[in-house]
Amino acid sequence: MKTSFLFPNSFKKVGWLLLIPGTILGIMVVFLDYEAPFLNAQVFSLFKNAPLFNNETPASHVVYNNLTNEIAGIIFLIGAILVNFSKEKQEDEYIAKVRLESLVWATYLNYGFLLLSLLLVYESQFLTFMVLNMFTLLIFFIIRFHLMLSQNNYSLKVHAE
């Protein structure tokens, strides 16, 4: 089966090598407020800490920021994309079907959580939830896709005996 939109299978290993430390660092950033002191830097910012359409302040400038959360997010995103969208060793129609079903399922679940948060989460907790929600689609997909593949492998082993 031709799947030109997927990365080669070897990228999946690189993805796991990025995803695991990215996840650990992300958990430390979100739940423990961890910031690596050596990652303090002056960086270009697209917007100031002002309303987006405030005509009194310039839109972009240099700010002082700790880059721990940005690095955690980048490492996690690259790792999760490589894990999710790399070919399996034997990519066939069944794998493509499971991949598509898992992506649809993860999208429904992700937006279900978003709808619930719009109704039940407020103020600064909503912003935290929205930041976490950016990553849940990829997490749900990883869980569902690999769970379905492992269930299929288990059922094949049981039927082979």
3D architecture notes:
The chain is mainly α. The protein folds into two domains: 1-88, no CATH class; 92-161. It contains four helices and two strands. The protein has helices at 10-32, 68-84, 93-120, 123-160, and strands at 40-45, 61-66. Strands 1-2 form a two-stranded antiparallel ribbon. The longest helix is centred in the C-terminal third of the chain and has 38 residues, at 123-160. The chain is globular and about 50 Å long.
Shape: globular
**Over all CA atoms, what is the radius of gyration?**
20 Å
User: Whole-number average pLDDT?
Assistant: 87
Distance between the termini: 29 Å
Q: Give unreliable regions as ranges.
A: none
In which order are the strands of the major sheet placed?
1-2
Number of domains: 2
Helix content: 55-70%
> What order do the SSEs take from the amino end to the carboxyl end, as H and E?
HEEHHH
Going by helix content, strand content and strand pairing, the class is mainly alpha
Q: Please provide the count of β strands.
A: 2
In DSSP terms (H or I, runs of 4 or more residues), the helix count works out at 4
How large is the share of residues in beta strands? 5-15%
Largest sheet: 2 strands, antiparallel
Secondary structure elements and their pairing?
Blueprint: H1 10-32, E1 40-45, E2 61-66, H2 68-84, H3 93-120, H4 123-160
Antiparallel strand pairs: 1-2
Question: What would a concise description of this structure say?
Answer:
Helix 1 (about 10-30) runs antiparallel to helix 2.
List keywords for this structure.
single chain, 161 residues, mainly alpha, 2 domains, two-stranded antiparallel ribbon, 4 helices, 2 strands, 66% helix, 7% strand, globular
